[in-house]
Structure formats: structure tokens, C-alpha cells
Amino acid sequence: MGKLVFFGELLIRLTAPGNELLMQSPSLALHVGGAEANVAIGLAHLGHDCAMMSRIPDNALGRGAVAAVRGAGVDCAAVATGPGRMGLYFLSVGAGLRASEIVYDRAGSSFAASGPEDYDFDRLLEGACLLHLSGITPALGPRSAEAALAAARAAKRLGVPVSFDGNYRAMLWEAWDSDPRAILSELIGLSDILFGNHRDLSLVLGRPFSGDGADRRREAAEAGFAAFPDLKLIASTARHTLTADHHRIAARVDLRNGSCQTGEVDVTGIVDRIGAGDAFAAGVIHAHLTGGDAKTMAETGLALTCLKHSLPGDASRFGQADIDAFHGGGLDVRR
Questions:
Q1: Which of 200, 214, 208, 306 is nearest to 252 (CA)?
Q2: Contact call for residues 310 and 274 (beta carbons, < 8 A)
Q3: With contact defined as beta carbons under 8 Å apart, do 264 and 248 qualify?
Q4: Longest pairwise C-alpha distance within the chain
């Protein structure tokens, strides 16, 4: 199996301690993440050869972010430096009936300022077996949108399968004169794997989907397969939020010739839900690359997304033994 390549922005997260509000006390915990980097870290912990493509400022923040991702087992040789600043975001973790809150501070980052001419995609994708992107990259601005499209086009030209997570962020798209439907449609059209649900497909196809639950998701998937001939797999989760620390989560994988939707899992005592979708993507990709069917992909993705809720930080750091233990239901101390 070749290397898995991830293209996106590295971010530094600053979190208020415990369940405090931002600025309630003069301390913040630091974690490194970013949608694509989180998936890379998750897959590296599952034994895959992962490489990150990105751009950071040449300062202590950028170097520290790269060191953290490299320390998690991801090759960062293709993370270059450039003008601009480090992208940041701030998190206040919710509790009970108070939701978590995020404040972004990423305008003018080195990554958002970079364009397709800053990356040698053909060289960086040589020997790759997958390119993973998310919709956050094109939402950052016209330069990064061009870069995301160039990366996906290069992968398609080189015969490298593309995995794309819709990750629609309305506030980012609305901050510039963007056309998210056109850009996302092209990216999905270049993709083999889509992480997205009926709402994502409704956005790009410009039509609603009837019914509810599994029927609506299958209708949306069939419309997606019809509109995008290269698309082979669509994966998504469904989350019911009871309180900030009690959710019910199910997973679904649709193929052209079948599908699997899991039952709901009660996730209680949530420590940190940030990055749970990226953990799901890592689980599905892992099962897909190791020959799993729709059921295995859905269940592996669900296991990692549920486990991620127990772990501080942005990325899953669980291995196959942790997935097996989750499916086995053993919650006693593992000795």
C-alpha cells in the first residue's frame, strides 16, 4: 500500500480550562489540529504511511505545529514555510445545556495565502494511494480554493483516488465572494469517496430530498452517484444531541450497490467532541483500504468517532486494538 497524502491547514487550538468560558481565567490549553491533519494522525495510529502537505509561518508557532504532527507519526517533509501567520482557533467546552463555542482567528494565515503555484502536486502525489481533502480548504478564500482544485485535478490525472470531506462552513464561505456550490461540485466530481450527508448533497445538487432517516439518506446517495460518475462511496454520521455531554451517534456508508446504517450508540461523559468527524473519516478510510465491506467501514468509523469523544485534543490516537475493544464492549481496565 502506498502513502496517504493530506492537503490542508494546520491549526493551533487554544482551549479554556475545564468547562470555563473563554477568558474566564488567564490560561489556555494548546492542541494542534486541522481537519486533514486530524485524519492523517488517526490513520497513522492505525499503521498507515501518512504525509501532510501544507504551509506554515517560519516561527515558533509553525514549527511547533509541525513538530506535533510529525510526533504523531505523519511525514511533514511537504509542509513548507511562507509569509503570513499561524491559523488559530479558541474553544470553550460546553456542559449540560450549554453548547461548546468556537472563535476562529485564521484570516491571513500562511496556508490561506498560498496558491497552486506553491505546491508541486505531481511530485508530492507520486506513489500515493489516496489524497484526502476537505471543504474547509476551499472555503478559506480564492487562493486556497484554487489550490484545493489543483490538488484534486492532479490526483485525478495521476490516477490517485481522492477522498473529500464536505465540512461545509458557511461563515468561511460568506467572508469572500465565493461560489461554494460550483467549487464543491467540482471537488466532489473529482472524488472517489465523499464524507457528507443529504444536506451536503442538497447544497451541490440544488434540490431537497424527501422522506426521513435512512430513506432520505439513500435517496440523496443515489442522486449523488448519478450526478458524479466517479463517486464510489458516501459516508456520514447522524448525531442527536441530548446535552453537551450526552449524544447519540449512528454511522452510514452508501455504495452504488448497497448500504449499511448502524444503530445509535449512546455517548455519555463526553470529554471532547472536536475532531469526531475526522476520526470517523479515518476509520472509514482504514476499513476501506484494508478491504472492508460497507458494514465494516460504517462500524469502524463509528467506533473511532465514539472513542474520540473520550480524548482531549483534535485527533484520534487509537489503534486497531482499541477498535476491537470497543466492539467487544469491555469497559473494565485493560491490563
A1: 214
A2: no
A3: yes
A4: 56
Overall pTM surpassing 0.90 (yes/no)? yes
Q: With CA atoms as reference, report the closest residue to 278 among 307, 321, 247, 248.
A: 307
Q: What is the pLDDT of residues 143-178, one digit of tens each?
A: 999 999 999 999 999 999 999 999 998 889 999 999
CATH of 3-325, one of 3.40.50.1000, 3.40.50.740, 3.40.630.40, 3.40.1190.20: 3.40.1190.20
Phi, psi at residue 243, to the nearest 5°? -140, 175
CA 64, CA 86: separation in Å to the nearest integer?
11
More confident site: 211 or 119: 119
Residue closest to 104 by CA, chosen among 9, 7, 11, 8: 11
pLDDT digits (tens, 9 = 90+) for 91-140: 999 999 999 999 999 999 999 999 999 999 999 999 999 999 999 999 99
